[in-house]
Amino acid sequence: MAKQKQLYICNKCGSNFATWFGKCPQCGEWNTLELKSISTKTTSSSKQEQLFSPIPITQSFSQQEVYFSCGEKEVDLFLGGGLVKGGVYLLGGEPGIGKSTWLLQLAGLLASRGLKTLYLSGEESLLQVQSRGKRLGLASDNLYLFYSTKLEEALEVLETGFQIAVIDSVQTLTSSKLEGVAGTPSQIREVALELIGLAKAREITLFLVGHVTKEGLIAGPKLLEHMVDCVLYLEGDREHFFRLLRVNKNRFGPSNEVLVLEMLEQGLRVVADPSTFFLEGSNNLSGQALTLTLEGHKALAVEIQALVSSSFLAVPRRVAQGIDQNRLNLLVAVLEKRLKISLKDKDIYLKIGGGLSLKDPALDLAICVALLSSFYDQPLPENSIFWGEVDLNGQIRRVLGHDLRLKQARKLGYTNIFAPQEKLVSLEDVCEQLKF
Ligand SMILES: Nc1ncnc2c1ncn2[C@@H]1O[C@H](COP(=O)(O)OP(=O)(O)OP(=O)(O)O)[C@@H](O)[C@H]1O
Ligand SMILES: [Mg+2]
Predict the structure, then answer these.
(1) CA distance 57 to 75
(2) With 291 labelled, which of 59, 108, 339, 360 sits at a CA distance of 20 to 30 A?
(3) 286 and 340 share a domain?
(4) Whole domain around residue 312: which residue ranges?
(5) Which residues pair with 119 in a beta bridge?
(6) Continuous H helices in 349-416
(7) Are residues 350 and 230 in the same domain?
(8) Which residues are registered as beta bridge partners of 167?
(9) Could you read off the pLDDT of 135-170 as tens digits, one per residue?
(10) Do 35 and 90 belong to one domain?
(11) Which-ligand-closest: CA of 233?
(12) Residues with CB under 5 A from ligand 2 (ion)
């Protein structure tokens, strides 16, 4: 029988408590606990006891999170071992980047493994979802589609024995308990709270799609990210066919993993070995330098392309694609000052090959040598690769993940590795070795 219990629920992180606290013991926010009535018809009596009485820490040792495979090894590893029953996953990303595509594919994969899966769309009609499913080659009777923008309907459908559910998107559902229109912070909070509560009680693995704001954050209150177990972001450049799936938070595994995906007609395909995926048939011309950048635990080889040419403008151009413009300006200033070369009458263009946008400080050295190679119109030695952080005084520092990059560089067959180990190396020394 359904029973109503009164619980204090934190509106910041979603944790629940039997008594009121001024400061949430979970997230530390003040005055965020609100008294709510929850239905306990879904929890067994032993679970209710667990909710209200403390348990010894050792008890949890016998009840560790159990991962189950989604059917794709790379995705399992990326998530820290697999999916978790009752786990709540939030996927954010820019419009049109492929969120619905990836989740429909994943739903199809899970359904084909015998799990009763629901794909609830509040954005696209069932016909649109079906035609996408057809294009992706999904054909499992375990995958159910449902269109709704009402939270109550969604909850009712979810109660009918689903093991996996995708809600596309959390911004389109509205609760009739609240006045606001869909997508307002209070609606998002209510919708997410109810869905998460049900997912935990029924052990449904739940995926929520979240829109991102112009600043790149998941729209709605930040608390959405606190409430879920895992936050994923799908990123990429629409002009290029790759997508990067990142873990921003993961209660079940590491939170800095990256999965490289390729957008094909048949949907998103995992690039099993992305180590040289971003190299575009490198020809060893002047102005090109190779480097290794770290994404999670993967070292990816990328090409830095520089063009230094005479300028006919009063203020020469400085154009950077894929790295911050200020960083280019800074490195150009270091080169001018430390190597005593004049670049003030040169236009300078810099690009990361493959369409990647990177912040890794280890790229500094490759950027500098690519600029010098173009300036002197002299290609870099065959089979060479560069990484290191360049200081304002022209010294090059060892970077994080040096050993991982070194291992990968050797594995990829690079024989001329320019990267400081223990001691600082100066730009002058590197120029001398490269005969600039
Ligand atoms: N017929 C097709 N062949 C290949 N790729 C397609 C095809 N149709 C759509 N796509 C790709 O799928 C992308 C749209 O993906 P999707 O609808 O999954 O994105 P989304 O992140 O869910 O977007 P939104 O935020 O608008 O819901 C398009 O940008 C395009 O790259
Ligand atoms: Mg979509």
Answers:
(1) 30
(2) 339
(3) yes
(4) 276-434
(5) 145, 166
(6) 364-375, 402-411
(7) no
(8) 120, 208
(9) 999 999 999 999 999 999 999 999 999 999 999 989
(10) no
(11) 1
(12) 100
Q: Is residue 217 over pLDDT 70?
A: no
Q: Which of 90, 94, 97, 134 to mutate to test the pocket of ligand 1 (most atoms within 8 A of CB)?
A: 97
Q: How far is the CA of 94 from the centre of ligand 2 (A)?
A: 10
The 10s digit of each residue's pLDDT in 335-383 is 999 999 999 999 999 999 888 899 999 999 999 999 999 999 999 999 9
The mean pLDDT value for 190-195 works out to 93
Instruction: Return phi, psi of residue 5, to 5°.
Output: -120, 145
Q: Counting atoms of ligand 1 from 1, which one is nearest the CA of 135? A: 1
State phi, psi for 272 to the nearest 5 degrees: -65, -45
C-alpha distances in Å from residue 195, one per residue of 167, 173, 199, 255: 9, 11, 6, 23
Q: Are residues 170 and 281 in the same domain?
A: no
* Ligand with the closest atom to the CA of 269: 1
- Looking at the structure, do residues 110 and 133 belong to the same domain, yes or no? yes
Note the pTM of the prediction, 2 decimals.
Answer: 0.80
Ligand 1 pocket list (CB less than 6 A): 93, 95-101, 123, 135, 263, 265
Q: What ligand is nearest to the CA atom of residue 94?
A: 1
Considering only residues 185 and 74, tell me which one the structure prediction assigns the higher pLDDT.
Answer: 74
3-state helix, strand, coil split of the chain in percent (to 5) is 30, 30, 40
